[in-house]
Amino acid sequence: MHQTLLAWYRQQGRQLPWRETRDPYAIWISEIMLQQTQVKTVLPYYQRWLQLFPTVYDLAAADQQTVLKAWEGLGYYARARNLHKAAQVIVAQHQGQFPEQFEDVVALPGIGRTTAGGILSAAFNQPVPILDGNVKRVLARLIALRQPPSKALDQLWQLSTALVPPREARDFNQALMDLGATVCTRHRPACLICPWRSPCAAYNQNVQLEIPMTETRAPLPHKQIGVAVVWNEQRQILIDRRPQSGLLGGLWEFPGGKIEPGEAVEDCIRRELQEELAIDVEVGDRLITIDHTYTHFKVTLNVFHCRHIGGKPQPIECDEVRWVAVSDLEQFPFPKANGQIIEAIKEIAVS
DNA sequence: CACTCGTGGGG
DNA sequence: TCCCCAAGAGT
């Protein structure tokens, strides 16, 4: 089993920048970026990150806003916050050396069982198993698993553990992920060129398209949001920094909130800015309307120009509030949906 | 342990 | 247009 896969990997495996190094720091960064994120998306972020933060010391010493700015657009921002925290732990508790004991690695924020296995096998060739989305699919098909992988995690972990070869774990784990990413794909798996076609139970029973089984999810709720681009007399705009925990934690945004049933957008904006920032505004023209989908809900951002009438902005439901010039907006990390607002503001500003 | 947490791409 | 999914972890 191993040798078949390893032989395939040596010929067909992907060449990826984090496979050119054995620096556990660089491999760690790649593993975190690759959580729930495709290789193509990660590549430019990975290169820029290592330019900005070449070592764990650079990362530990950076301020969080710089870290979040480097992560801007990648999503799941807790990954960046945890990466930053973990770097500080490695400097303070491990003398700047990435730990090599599994228990020490999984103890770092943002690193679970799969990521720990990925790092330790890739960086140190330790025979530890992994179980990411690719491996779940490959192994589920290998044994023709008749239930969703989430219901059989123990069994899949045992199988992954049993398969890792003692002396070639690095290549084997990478090969397993490549197989899932390029051959044993969700749609149109290329079974005819698969090195594991012969032992694959799903292929032999011709059920590879039905495995892994998926559980259905409820339809996403849709929220209407009122958003304010508040201008003051100096042609500055008001932005606020979201709390550390929760959605988009630590990122900046344009203030606003959920429109209550039957409420007009203008009323929502005036109410939210009073509740969250204790300021009075006059709501003007609509700037832009943005539809955006998050993992668990959809939003429509109804963005309106506003004029600041009175009250010094207070950080009541956020961590910080600032007035900033249009030209300075790009220095702050914003969520993707807010990026469209910034573009719209710039178009107004030049005209 | 079910839920939360982004974004881009494919069918 | 809409659903599903992609190198998961934290709570």
From TrEMBL:
Xref: PROSITE patterns: ENDONUCLEASE_III_1, ENDONUCLEASE_III_2, NUDIX
Cofactor(s) essential for the protein: [4Fe-4S] cluster; Mg(2+)
Reactions accelerated catalytically: Hydrolyzes free adenine bases from 7,8-dihydro-8-oxoguanine:adenine mismatched double-stranded DNA, leaving an apurinic site
Nudix hydrolase domain sequence ranges: 220-347
Residues at which Mg(2+) binds: G256, E276
Keywords: 4Fe-4S, DNA damage, DNA repair, Glycosidase, Hydrolase, Iron, Iron-sulfur, Magnesium, Metal-binding
First-tier enzyme category under EC: hydrolase
GO molecular function: 4 iron, 4 sulfur cluster binding; 8-oxo-7,8-dihydroguanine DNA N-glycosylase activity; 8-oxo-7,8-dihydroguanosine triphosphate pyrophosphatase activity; adenine/guanine mispair binding; metal ion binding; oxidized purine DNA binding; purine-specific mismatch base pair DNA N-glycosylase activity
UniProt keyword annotation of DNA repair present: yes
EC numbers on record: 3.2.2.31
Coiled coil: none
Pfam families recorded: HhH-GPD (PF00730), NUDIX_4 (PF14815)
GO BP of this protein: base-excision repair; mismatch repair
Binding site for 8-oxo-dGTP: R242, E253, F254, P255, G256, N338
Listed NCBIfam families: mutt, mutY
Family named by the database record: Belongs to the Nth/MutY family.
Function statement: Adenine glycosylase active on G-A mispairs. MutY also corrects error-prone DNA synthesis past GO lesions which are due to the oxidatively damaged form of guanine: 7,8-dihydro-8-oxoguanine (8-oxo-dGTP).
UniProt name for this protein: Adenine DNA glycosylase
Gene expressing this chain: mutY
